[in-house]
């Protein structure tokens, strides 16, 4: 019963390409292209490792060890460049999503590549330190993938069309109402409200933010103080209702901060350890060649 | 009365006064008849202290009376004084009821029984006595008035002014002028721009709107008048506002009955038509002349010049040229053949279809706003993708349109009398094809505003343009196998319908047999399944629907309703069938479309059984997006909040790709089913921002993107007109240090839009150094025009949450099938 105009002004396919409208997550990008590449690569690496006799034994010093070591080192350098790619808005047909997808799957492939490279020889030395740091980066990355896959939906549900700024403004509006509603209160009651108003909602530590367990919350204490049984239109009743609205607003903000913190906290491991890894890797490579 | 005057002048407005003054100066026996007890009633009734403008500014005034822009009182005072000085023979309270007789011997009957005899009559009675009435239901209520004498009389009222002409704007401004009167003034404009009004008035209105003194509602018309309330028809559906008084200033019509009773014929049967006139203002009744607003000239300068001219003609001065002659001579000097102005005007008037109904005087006025060009055979008139919003008409010769950019040899001819370049008037797209002169050709180029004004004020021109629009749209839609002759009947029977947001055009189960083409806006197709409307598809402007019932004679299988305020062309089914039978290719195409459509219906029906909730969600999501204004959009940024981690890299990328300012706000906007519509430009099919851009700086690029070029003057009109709040006004911050020096040395504010404080500090430094304060200009998404790789927001999203979609592709069953499979 209807048709879409066929001749759009300029090549519709070109416009579609500009839009990059393929609605796919970074994990399933291009029908799991990078997962497939990484898996094939790992399988081949494992098979070669399993069926090649290494004399005297498998380690980083064999031809295969050097090969995997070179690949691994180059991969690590390339993977760490994601941080720059993300922040450098140059022109060109690149997509950060494709980079992330490759970063995830090739990063995971490093587990196999680097482990095979060690030939399962570990010790208390700078070489194993580099390996351990790399594994730490990968583990933090796996946490990152997990939260990226699970939390965005909850972040969106909690936000309910409000921006961060709107949440802060809503809290400010409640605070102004509370401040004026608290005028008739006596000293002790007023102090409870003032304590709630004076408390910096962002002044809690990282741990509190992540756990969502705000034990020192002055709003909660004030609510406990105005513990109920008031008429709706009494001063205390009004204070109580405003306090509970304040608590609800704080709860939304705290959930928001918690989710944002969970989405970001791993980067505080992932990135510094990557830098340490790059340093350890340099030492590892230099020392290997130095003692050749 | 024994005395017979040489001339009786009826009406003492600017035209009549000027005529009487000329007659008095020439010593011609005359009488000036005025219905009321004062001169120039129309201007007398202007609001107190009204500033009267003297446009068109390039027209020379030729009259014995003075006139210059100034307040009403001064102008009336000058004329009263000059009437005395010139010894004009005025008769007040002389209401003419009938004019009989022939040239040389007219009898003019006055109310009260007196008669006056005259050899010739000049009618300068204007049109103000005959205002257009408000035709919405309830329009007869007492609080609707058609005139405003003193805006200072009204206090504490909610007043709605209807009409976007000068009178309406001036009334609205007058009512809102003194804040102490405490009036809430709203002005309604049926269209998006104020094409009918003088620029000075429009500027003043926009200024008042900015200051919050007047509420301007565009694309809005009255639907029903109630006591204390007014129901409005807005682009987004009906809305009721408080309204204690309505001032309707929707123009006026010639008092046709009276004029026709004098034996004068009009140019056409149109309600808006004017009397048929010779170049010396003589009507079809010899001896009776018509000048001023009744002749189609509402502007004071025109009226006064005509008053002077008509008496000169009567006095036997046949050599008199109109006052604008030198300007037109200069304008036409570039044309070949050295022909006089009158010949060119005559040629354009007869040859160009949209100008046929214009009187010679209207022609002259239009030409003052237009340019004429002469092209040699093969010369390019404009290139494909060139900027340009003007419309061309072919006065002589013909042009060839290169329809295939890859092969310039394939052309379609456009002949003498037709127009081209009309697309720019509507959606601001760049020129779609290169057009060359097919032979030596003469064209008239109308500026966008002049063309819009012509279409708005001259119904015949409007119809002619409309017909061409419809013809071209049908030809474009149904493919190249058709020629204009094939669809002539279809075009003749076509009818343009305005559709409200949400209004149903086709109802499921209906038996009507018409085909519709969406000319403006967009539609959604719904089917009733198990008592619930299920969304089937989205139809953008340029699609057609309704052919199924026509082809196989079935009942309507689905409901089609407007997503936003739209315009559809209704084509009778029979006429369409005839065209289809005669054109196998069109038939094939229509049948293929119909099959695809059937498949969609069947698919949704089959899904409804097994995936009822998925279908419901699809319908609800589609409805949400339509409510968010997607119906306007051609390309919109969506964020899948199941993937968005809130890193704001899209905003940072946007800022870093565009002078350091972000054009999108990711967090703002609404969300449904985790699909988020952020505050970002959706590149409307009919951009609201484009409506009122003084320098015409908002344009549409080759990829369909709406962008603002460097001629922006920072007036902020677009920001106010955008219903989606996606335009910001800001000054371009200075360049920041590069990304690597930020990473390694911590220099500069880092990626993304620098903080307000950083920008402020740097701007102050720059200002101190150069002494220049950077201006704030309008900033909006340009879809990363000219940046290889395309929109930065999408490229920079690490998780794939940000996507750019066109609504017709996003709201399609194909995508739904992919996502539920």
3D architecture notes:
Chain A has 292 residues and is mainly α. Chain A is 72% helix and 1% strand. Chain A folds into two domains: 28-147 and 269-291, no CATH class; 164-264, no CATH class. Chain A is elongated, with a radius of gyration of 28 Å. Chain B is globular and about 95 Å long. The model of chain B has no long low-confidence stretch (mean pLDDT 86). Chains A and B meet through strand 1, helix 1, helix 4, helix 5 and helix 6 of A and strand 31, helix 15, helix 17, helix 19 and strand 35 of B. Strand 1 of chain A pairs antiparallel with strand 31 (544-545) of chain B, so a sheet runs across the interface.
Brief synopsis:
The complex is a heterodimer of chains A (292) and B (821). Chain A has 292 residues and is mostly helical.
Oligomer designation: heterodimer
Output the structural class of chain B.
alpha+beta
Q: What is the number of strand segments of chain A?
A: 1
Total of DSSP H or I helical runs spanning 4+ residues of chain A:
12
- The number of helical elements of chain B comes to 25
Mean pLDDT of chain A: 88
User: What's the shape of chain A?
Assistant: elongated
| Mean pLDDT figure of chain B | 86
| Low-confidence segments of chain A | 1-21
């Amino acid at each position: 019963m209807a048709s879409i105009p066929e001749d759009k002004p300029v090549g519709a396919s070109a416009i579609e390409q500009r839009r990059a409208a393929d609605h796919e997550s970074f994990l399933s990008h291009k029908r799991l292209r990078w997962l497939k590449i990484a898996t094939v690569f790992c399988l081949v690496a494992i098979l070669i490792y399993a069926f090649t006799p290494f004399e005297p034994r498998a380690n980083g010093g064999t031809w295969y060890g050097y090969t995997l070591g070179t690949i691994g080192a180059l991969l690590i350098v390339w993977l760490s460049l994601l941080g720059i790619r993300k922040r450098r808005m140059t022109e060109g047909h690149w997509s950060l999503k494709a980079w992330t997808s490759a970063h995830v799957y090739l990063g995971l492939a490093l587990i196999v590549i680097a482990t095979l490279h060690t030939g399962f020889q570990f010790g208390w030395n700078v070489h194993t330190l580099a390996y351990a740091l790399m594994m730490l980066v990968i583990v933090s990355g796996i946490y990152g993938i997990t939260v990226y896959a699970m939390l965005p939906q909850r972040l969106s549900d909690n936000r309910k069309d409000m921006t961060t700024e709107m949440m802060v403004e809503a809290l400010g509006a409640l605070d102004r109402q509370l401040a004026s509603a608290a005028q008739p209160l006596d000293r002790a009651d007023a102090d409870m409200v003032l304590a709630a108003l004076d408390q910096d909602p962002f002044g809690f530590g990282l741990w509190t933010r992540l756990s969502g367990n705000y034990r020192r919350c002055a709003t909660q204490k004030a609510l406990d103080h105005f513990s109920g049984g008031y008429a709706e239109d009494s001063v205390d009743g009004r204070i109580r209702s405003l306090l509970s609205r304040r608590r609800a607003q704080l709860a939304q903000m705290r959930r928001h901060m918690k989710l944002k913190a969970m989405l970001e906290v791993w980067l505080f491991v992932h990135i510094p350890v990557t830098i340490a890894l790059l340093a350890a890797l340099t030492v590892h490579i230099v020392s290997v060649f130095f003692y050749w | 009365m024994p005395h017979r005057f040489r001339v009786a002048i009826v009406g003492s407005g600017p035209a009549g006064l000027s005529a009487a003054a000329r007659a008095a100066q020439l010593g011609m026996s005359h009488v000036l008849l005025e219905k009321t007890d004062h001169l120039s009633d129309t201007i007398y009734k202007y609001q107190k202290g009204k500033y009267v403008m003297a446009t068109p500014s390039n027209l020379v005034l030729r009259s014995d009376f003075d006139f210059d822009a100034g307040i009403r009182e001064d102008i009336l005072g000058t004329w009263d004084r000059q009437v005395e000085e010139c010894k004009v023979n005025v008769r007040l309270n002389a209401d003419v009821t009938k004019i009989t007789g022939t040239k040389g011997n007219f009898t003019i009957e006055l109310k009260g029984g007196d008669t006056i005899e005259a050899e010739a009559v000049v009618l300068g009675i204007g049109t103000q006595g005959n205002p257009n009435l408000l035709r919405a239901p309830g329009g007869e209520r007492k609080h609707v008035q058609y005139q405003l004498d003193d805006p200072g009389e009204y206090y504490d009222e909610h007043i709605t002014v209807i009409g976007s002409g000068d009178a309406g704007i001036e009334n609205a401004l007058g009512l809102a002028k003194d804040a102490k009167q405490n009036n809430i003034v709203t002005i309604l404009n049926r269209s998006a721009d104020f094409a009918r009004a003088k620029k000075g008035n429009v500027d003043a209105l926009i200024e008042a709107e900015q200051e919050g003194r007047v509420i301007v509602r565009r694309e809005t018309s009255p639907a029903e008048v109630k006591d204390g309330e007014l129901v409005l028809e807005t682009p987004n559906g009906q809305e009721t506002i408080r309204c204690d008084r309505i001032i309707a200033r929707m123009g006026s019509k010639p008092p046709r009955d009276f004029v026709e009773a004098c034996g004068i014929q009009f140019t056409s049967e149109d309600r808006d038509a004017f009397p048929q006139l010779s170049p010396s203002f003589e009507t079809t009744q010899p001896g009776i002349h018509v000048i001023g607003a009744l002749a189609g000239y509402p502007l004071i300068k025109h009226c006064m010049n005509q008053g002077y001219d008509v008496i000169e003609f009567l006095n036997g001065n046949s050599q008199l040229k109109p006052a604008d002659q030198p300007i037109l001579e200069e304008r036409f000097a570039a044309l070949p053949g050295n022909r006089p102005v009158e010949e060119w005007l005559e040629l354009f008037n007869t040859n160009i279809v949209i100008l046929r109904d214009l009187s010679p005087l209207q022609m002259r006025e239009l030409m003052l706003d237009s340019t004429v060009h002469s092209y040699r055979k093969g010369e390019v008139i404009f290139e494909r993708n060139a900027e340009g919003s003007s419309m061309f008409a072919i006065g002589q010769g013909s042009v060839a349109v290169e329809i295939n950019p890859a092969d310039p040899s394939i052309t379609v001819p456009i002949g003498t009398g037709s127009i081209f370049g009309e697309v720019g008037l509507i959606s601001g797209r760049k020129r779609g094809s290169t057009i060359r002169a097919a032979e030596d050709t003469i064209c008239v180029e109308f500026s966008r505003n002049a063309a819009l004004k012509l279409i708005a004020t001259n119904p015949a021109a409007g119809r002619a343009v409309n017909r061409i629009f419809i013809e071209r749209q049908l030809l474009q839609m149904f493919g190249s196998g058709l020629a204009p002759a094939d669809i002539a009947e279809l075009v003749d029977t076509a009818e343009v319908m305005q559709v409200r947001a949400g209004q149903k055009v086709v109802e499921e189960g209906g038996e009507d047999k018409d085909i519709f083409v969406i000319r403006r806006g967009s539609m959604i197709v719904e089917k009733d399944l198990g008592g619930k409307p299920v969304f089937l598809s989205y139809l953008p402007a340029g699609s057609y629907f309704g052919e199924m019932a026509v082809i196989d004679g079935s009942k309507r299988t689905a409901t089609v309703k407007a997503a936003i305020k739209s315009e559809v062309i209704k084509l009778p089914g029979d006429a369409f069938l005839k065209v289809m039978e005669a054109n196998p290719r069109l038939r094939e195409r229509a049948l293929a479309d119909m099959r695809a459509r059937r498949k969609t219906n069947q698919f949704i029906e089959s899904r409804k059984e097994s995936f009822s909730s998925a279908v419901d969600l699809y319908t609800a999501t589609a409805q949400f997006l339509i409510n968010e204004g997607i119906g306007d959009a051609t390309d919109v940024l969506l964020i899948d909040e199941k993937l968005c981690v809130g890193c704001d890299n899209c905003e940072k990328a946007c800022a870093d790709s565009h002078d350091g300012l972000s054009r999108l706000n990711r967090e703002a906007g609404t969300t449904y089913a985790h699909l988020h519509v952020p505050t970002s430009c959706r590149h409307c099919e009919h951009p609201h921002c484009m409506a009122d851009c003084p320098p015409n700086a908002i344009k549409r690029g080759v990829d369909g993107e709406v962008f603002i070029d460097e001629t922006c003057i920072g007036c902020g009109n677009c920001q106010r007109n955008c219903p989606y709040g996606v335009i910001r006004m800001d000054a371009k911050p200075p360049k920041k240090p590069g990304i690597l020096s930020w990473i390694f040395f911590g220099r500069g504010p880092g990626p993304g839009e620098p903080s307000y404080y950083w920008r402020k500090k740097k701007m102050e430094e720059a200002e101190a150094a150069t002494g220049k304060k950077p201006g704030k200009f309008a900033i909006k998404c340009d879809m990363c025009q000219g940046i290889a790789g395309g929109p930065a927001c999408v490229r920079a999203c690490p998780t794939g949450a940000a996507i750019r979609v066109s609504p017709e592709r996003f709201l399609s069953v194909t995508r739904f099938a992919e996502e539920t499979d």
